[in-house]
Amino acid sequence: MAENWEPVEVTRAEGRGPVVLVCEHASRDFPQPWGDLGLSPEAAESHAAWDIGALDVSRALAALLDSPLVSACASRLVYDLNRPLEADDAIPVQSEIYEVPGNAGLSPQERALRHRALHDPFHDRLAEVLDSRQRDALVTIHSFTPVYRGKRREVELGFLYHEDSRMAEAALEVEQAKGSYRAALNEPYAASDGVTYTLRKHGEARGLPSLMIEIRNDLIDTEARARDMAVHLMPALAAAIAAVAEDRQAAE
Ligand SMILES: [Zn+2]
Predict the structure, then answer these.
(1) For residue 3, what pLDDT is reported?
(2) pTM value?
(3) How much distance in Å is there from the Cα of 167 to the middle of ligand 1?
(4) How far is CA 241 from CA 72, 98, 144, 210, 236, in A?
(5) What is the pLDDT of residues 66-78, one digit of tens each?
(6) Residue 250 alpha carbon to ligand 1 centre in Å
(7) In this structure, is residue 244 part of a structural domain?
(8) What distance in Å separates the CA atoms of residue 248 and residue 242, rounded to the nearest whole number?
(9) β-bridge pairing 137-144 and 210-216
(10) Phi, psi (deg, nearest 5) at residue 40
(11) Second label for 7, Cα 20 to 30 Å away, from 70, 71, 78, 210?
(12) Domain membership of residue 201 as a residue range
């Protein structure tokens, strides 16, 4: 591993905005000692390796909200930071149409090593950022491919939750009223697909409201489009934040 390589990047750590942003699938880097896992160049640049555009949207939102952003620095094919070690797809041998040769036949020790090298520092750092603040909400930013296993996906924006649906429902209401994109709750994935690990681990475990946003990646495939999407999402996010702030005030 390069001497100064870090598995996690935190920007605007001191930001005073109302949420902490997380981007677990931000990177298509394949750091040593794992390298490119024997992937074809096409696979290593594809949506299988990372969430195309998600980091650009996250950075733009962090600036708009003045919020901290915790993002990954290695491809999710090395270790998927939104999965626990016991999930088969934490270190996938096959990702949609691509085989991942470097992940085949790993011993439990090799899996545990990647978990320690990538998962632990990322989630420890996120916990530190959350611990240093009060009364936050957690928002994770993801993107998905327009065509999955040969099937076209119609949904363009998904608002996902683990158990606490307040932020997702408030965001969806604003988005549907605007009508610019086809938006839905818990699409194209839901908690039952195992995609809400970060929300559960850091949100619900500490009583923080949380929201996962999934954006179809053809809408954010340039930095300019990603920035436009961040601006577009601000009213929905503001409504999500307001929904939980009202509940909190009512409880006090
Ligand atoms: Zn993702």
Answers:
(1) 64
(2) 0.96
(3) 19
(4) 24, 38, 24, 9, 9
(5) 999 999 999 999 9
(6) 34
(7) yes
(8) 10
(9) parallel
(10) -70, 155
(11) 210
(12) 8-251
